[in-house]
Amino acid sequence: MFNKDPKAHYNKLLSQITSAISKETNLITITATISSILHESLNILKDNKVNWTGFYFKEPDGGLVVGPYQGKQACQRIPNGKGVCGMAVARRQCVLIADVHNCEEHIACDSNSKSEIVFPIIVNSEVMGVLDIDSLVTSGFNEDDRKGLEVIVELIQRQCQWNQLQTNEKLSSTSFPYSWVIPVAFFLLFTTAFTFTYRKNK
Known about the structure:
Order of helices and strands: HHEEEHEEEHHH
Strand order of the largest sheet: 3-2-1-6-5-4
Number of helices: 6
Number of domains: 1
CATH superfamily: GAF domain
CATH topology: Beta-Lactamase
Distance between the termini: 86 Å
Strand content: 15-25%
Largest sheet: 6 strands, antiparallel
Radius of gyration: 23 Å
């Protein structure tokens, strides 16, 4: 059972997550597992006031693309530097917003969200993504949450094989040059058919 004392709760949560991912290194598996455990446990601590828990991964252009999460459908992509997530990436530190409606940078993926806490995930001095958590109430997060979640983010930074994300980026960036294959194939097919018909009629 989780304890509603924040310090005890986060100690228990860290232990549970450490055990759950101890033999895993796959990026998607780990972040999916953690988003599920975090969402459930934070709602115990916060009386079911946490409405979104999940990850965004950094794209080659500096923007963010959504990863595993719990909650309503999320913004699939966040442009470079935009939103509270973009603030966390730019500042390279946790950003805690007590009232998102008073934050000009906030992107309302879920209009019910009223407060937000975002942690950048930094590996070898490079921001790889963020952990983003939203609440249905203003001031839904505090320093106890920041301290408790910070340790979990450090575990994520150590445990995941972040080169998997870099590999996906390289595959994505090299896929464009092959966009000419289909048009060229159609052209060759057309010219072959035309040549065959011309010779047959001749």
